[in-house]
Amino acid sequence: MTGFLLELYVARTNCAAGGMSADRFKRAALEVTAEGKPVRLLRSIFVPEDETCFLLFDAASADLVAEAVHRAGLRHEHISAATSTTVAAASAAATHPKGTTMTITTQLTDYTEPVRNGMWWPAKPDVLVFARDVGGNEQRQIYRLDAGSKEPVLLTDSARANAPAAVNRARTRLLVTSTDVDKVSGRRDNPTLDLALVDPLAPDKKSKIATLPGTAWGDFSFSFDDRRLALVEFKSITESYVWVMDLKTGERRRVLPATGPATGHTIASSEVNFSRDGKGLFLTTDRKGEFQRASYLDLATGRLETFGPSTSDVEQLVLSPDGRTLAMISNEAGTGVLRLFDANSRRELPRPSMPTGAVKGIEWHHDSGALALVLDTAQTPGDVYVLDRKSNAVARWTESKVEGLDASRFRTQQAIRWTSFDGREITGFITRPPESFNGRRPVIVDGRNLYDPEKMREHGIRYYSIGRVKVEQPAAVRVGESA
């Protein structure tokens, strides 16, 4: 099988046509494959600026590709043999900031075991590095999938459970955690976690860094010179410890809370990032109150400086690759809010104008010029948006489909606040009916199963509970009737 690249014309104002073209080609490829002439679509890349959609696939010859294209009824520019250079060029064009940035999603992996996460390897952008389970045992392994290949290359020891943890600043090594698995009892005395640096393109050159006590370690962050590693030891949701490790010697030092007499009070910290100058750490911690506050820890003095919202938890804190800008997601009244801060002064920067919704999953581009995020709104459930730092403008990159429904007609929830019986402010969300409807709707949503279903039925209320025997619902209550 050989890789081929097909070019299609797609108007920049109609990116959905590219997705439909890919779907049509998939169906046609299945027909050709069923006749004993395998053709497999691997990936699609849409370049709005050039009004071109690239389709990457496997086939025995260009003639088979042409046959599938003909059956799909597609008009194409030309078919060429795919190389790592041509695929990388197409990918780069698709992410170029000049044009519209809507993209087409294509499934890259198809295994019986779940793929947990993956990334394009920076040193070779057409190589996919991903982790998945093996044999249903959750003994996760890390693989490399080369461009045009169907079978991945195993990068880790199959006798151990492995997981990707972080990429170093030079973007040449993958930090991998691994631990032994007890195949007999499922339990081990004094378990440990190994840390190693792996080059996915040359996995035999793996270098072990250290062995840590226990297995609950995470939030790994490399210093900008790649000489130190910050990491968090998790004990419970209310207790964790921040450490800094010398990567040459493997020696580590606890920095938050610092080593000393026990105080009887535990704190929880996470989201660790080395500062650009290496003199401190950006992180979130509840050391100074009940909320997870964004903070800066001076490694020399141990002084902790908080910044950002003071009455909400910070759920994600990510420093840009150039070390100059912090992106934060804070949980404000139940909604994930994106905020940006200057890393040097810790002053908040102008917030971008975004659709109303909850932000999550922020990630910086390696050049620090763009920030990717997932935005959940009533009309766009889980779509990817990209913030351009130069213009502070947000562009939508994906368009999720809700099969059989028109998502544009979904109602937007509104945040509401009220005071409880003990004077505390409570926040929530309400989905209001269309303005044309002014009647009453006797409905109770009970998340705790507090009410008796029969009593609700007797009062004419449509009542649904979880985990209980279904209760026959009453006839529809007429508009204007009281519950």
Please describe what this structure looks like.
The C terminus is likely disordered. The strands form nine sheets. This protein has a four-stranded antiparallel beta sheet, with helices on both faces. Strands 5-6-7-8 form a four-stranded antiparallel beta sheet, with no helix packed on it. The longest helix is centred in the first third of the chain and has 20 residues. By secondary structure, the protein is mainly beta. The chain is globular. Helix 1 crosses helix 2. Among the domains are: 93 residues, 2-Layer Sandwich (Alpha-Beta Plaits); 54 residues, no CATH class.
Q: Describe the sheet with the most strands.
A: 4 strands, antiparallel
Give me the CATH architecture of the domain at 2-94, please: 2-Layer Sandwich
Shape: globular
**Average pLDDT reading:** 80
Number of helices: 4
Q: What proportion of the residues form beta strands (DSSP E)?
A: 35-45%
Structural class determined from secondary elements: mainly beta
Widest sheet: strand order? 2-3-1-4
Stretches where pLDDT is under 50 for at least 5 consecutive residues are: 12-19, 83-103, 476-483
Query: For the record, what CATH class of the domain at 2-94 applies?
Result: Alpha Beta
CATH topology of the domain at 2-94: Alpha-Beta Plaits
CATH superfamily of the domain at 2-94: ORF SCO4226, nickel-binding ferredoxin-like monomer
